[in-house]
Specification:
- By secondary structure, the chain is of the alpha/beta class.
- It folds into two domains: 2-140 and 312-332, Rossmann fold; 158-308, 3-Layer(aba) Sandwich (Rossmann fold), CATH 3.40.50.2000.
- It starts with a strand and ends with a helix.
- The chain has helices spanning 13-24, 46-57, 85-88, 92-106, 117-127, 171-181, 197-206, 223-229, 244-251, 264-268, 280-292, 294-308, 313-332; strands at residues 2-6, 30-34, 61-64, 77-81, 111-114, 158-161, 188-191, 212-214, 232-235, 256-259, 273-275.
- The strands form two sheets. The protein has a six-stranded parallel beta sheet, with helices on both faces. It has a five-stranded parallel beta sheet with strand order 2-1-3-4-5.
- β9 (232-235), α9 (244-251) and β10 form a beta-alpha-beta unit.
- The radius of gyration is 21 Å and the shape is globular.
- The chain has 13 helices and eleven strands.
- α6 (171-181) crosses α11 and α9 (244-251) crosses α12.
């Protein structure tokens, strides 16, 4: 039995799901303990606090499902970097912290886990580490995300966006493209999350105020219903390390419109319709095609379902178990 200490400070969002799905499927040879930390995820002293937690718990190995490495550790540690958004688009001070503090510490890790080949390449370039030090363990999709089952039916057809409202999610361009698509009045736009005064104002300015709808917080158990009920899933981010909603939409048998940049074409493969996220006209044309071309829709549904089967949580958890086992062996041999 190996004792695994985990940074368990994530209580919602994609990293929480990534962590829960992998840990629930981890090989039973690992006894899992959480650090129980209550300090903020963006606490600049996190590397020090994680080191103190490791020293106190004295595990065989430590893993963080998020961005932060540790200051120092007597046992091997691994952490997952889902993307390089903190470095690529962060403000000056945050970028300085990442480059001067996180990057040197990252090189001390037994492994840095990437979630896509795109992220692996970015991490290797940033750290100078070879690919073998940055293995890929992708997100997965479980059996609950399938075409079979109940569908959300608000009484009108809709395009669905699931995700945060950060700048790289490109929501302004998505709304502008919807306004140009000619779908207003026939197929509405539904966003996960609570209403946004800023987005509402933009929608009114674009003449689509009556078409924009908010689903509020969608519990994970209800997500498949919203995907299945949609005419299509839209995710036209300018930057993604993986793009889980893209995968979940495909697994639910729904056509997906996504970007042709960063990790998204890698994850979507031939199962998604790709557009330039910087071109409002191209996004608008994609929305028209994915809702109006029945042959294209059927092709995307079939290819998307096949593509989604390449990403399984069981397979990813098995890969993590292997890495953690190797780390434990390396720790004993120190």
């Amino acid at each position: 039995m190996h004792r695994l200490l985990v940074d368990d400070r994530w209580h919602s969002g994609g990293i929480k799901r990534f962590s829960d799905e992998l840990l629930s499927r981890l090989d039973p040879e690992f006894h899992i303990e959480g650090i129980g930390g209550t300090y903020p995820l963006n606490d600049p002293l996190t590397p020090l606090k994680l080191s103190l937690a490791i020293k106190k718990a004295r595990p065989d190995v430590f893993w963080s499902p998020g961005f932060m490495p540790v200051l120092g550790s007597a046992v091997p540690f691994l952490f997952t970097m889902h993307d390089m958004i903190h470095v690529r688009v962060a403000g000056g001070l945050h970028r300085l912290y990442c480059n001067s503090v996180i990057r040197p510490l990252a090189k001390k890790a037994f492994k840095i886990i990437a979630v896509s080949a795109f992220s692996q390449g970015e991490i290797c370039e940033w750290t100078g580490l070879p690919p073998e030090r940055v293995p890929i363990i992708p997100n997965g999709v479980d059996s609950g995300f399938s075409p079979q089952g109940e569908k959300y039916d608000p009484g009108y057809p809709y395009l669905l966006y699931v995700g945060a409202r950060k700048a790289h999610k490109n929501l302004e361009a998505m709304l502008a493209a919807y306004a140009r698509s000619g779908l207003s009045g026939t197929c509405r736009l539904v966003l996960s999350g609570e209403p946004s005064a800023e987005l509402d104002a933009l929608a009114v300015k674009l003449g689509i105020g009556k078409d924009l709808r908010y689903a509020g917080f969608i519990p994970e158990a209800k997500l498949p219903l919203y995907y299945r009920g949609a005419e299509a899933v839209v995710m036209v981010s300018t930057y993604e390390g993986f793009g889980l909603p893209l995968l979940e939409g495909m697994a639910c048998g729904v056509p997906v419109l996504t970007s042709n940049t960063t990790s998204l074409p890698e994850i979507g493969g031939d199962g998604a319709l790709l557009v330039n996220p910087l071109s409002v006209d191209e996004i608008a044309e994609g929305m028209k095609r994915i809702t109006g071309d029945s042959a294209l829709r059927q092709q995307l549904i079939e290819k998307g379902l096949r593509r989604s089967k390449d990403f399984q949580w069981d397979r990813s958890a098995a890969s993590l178990s292997i890495l953690l086992r190797e780390a434990c062996i390396a720790g004993v041999c120190r």
